[in-house]
Design brief:
Layout (H helix, E strand, L loop, with lengths): L13 H10 L1 H29 L43
Length: 96
């Protein structure tokens, strides 16, 4: 199962960014590396969730009962202009 990411602060204020900047180059590099790691984890989680949402009983081993109440897709084939059955005037054959 997917693990929930640890709750972290979502926004950094301009003052906090300036404080990191005042600490020096290493602090800024550390902040940037931390943000890049977090972005990579979030991208991985988004990909996992997108894959999970895209699965149904037709493209995975999930049972049909887990598909929900979505209607089945309609056929894209167009209806023929011809009428059904044999040709007009043909006597036809049936068992007697």
């Amino acid at each position: 199962m997917l693990s929930d990411p640890t709750p972290q602060k979502l926004a950094i204020s301009r003052g906090e960014i300036r404080a990191v900047y005042a600490q020096g180059e290493d602090a800024v590099i550390g902040l940037a590396e931390g943000l890049l790691q977090r972005i990579a984890k979030l991208e991985e989680r988004v990909e996992q969730l997108e894959n999970q949402v895209g699965k149904n009983s037709r493209n995975s081993s999930k049972p049909p009962s887990s598909d929900g109440f979505k209607p089945k897709p309609k056929s894209l084939r167009e209806r023929s202009k011809r009428s059904s059955g044999g040709q007009t005037g043909h006597p036809g054959q049936t068992l007697e």
